[in-house]
# Entry
Amino acid sequence: MQLEKLFNMQQALDQHIEEKHELQNEELFNRKVLALLVELGELANETRCFKFWSIKPSSEKSIVLEEFVDGIHFILSLGIECGFQNLKYAMNNEPPGSGVSDQFLLIYESVNNFKNSKNEHDFKVLLESYLQLGTLLGITYEEMEKAYFAKNEVNYQRQQNNY
# Structure
């Protein structure tokens, strides 16, 4: 995965949004954290991984992938806020040993840890655990990247249409 390219694209989108909405002097970190948590909940809802009381299956992969990519946008944006866009990241191709529900809980915990510390280690844990969730959901790095590019374009179009 070309994380450097994704970070650059996210930085340009963030700058565009901040200029358009005159947010250059606003503190956006906590709002981005909340946005990530909301997106994470939306993703969990589409996977239905926690709905032990229901036999209805997960949403189709394209919907899960779109929700997943929304989370990538906010994670990258948070990393940029803290200056972590130029770090080197090791891409772990092995899915974690835990199940999907446990991975969601780990990510919620990772978001909170990073929110409180704003340090490089906790950011890497958050990013890597989120990408591992994608792997658990059957999403390849190539699919993640392609979906990110497409959603980034949609986000620009939304800004042009006063979304």
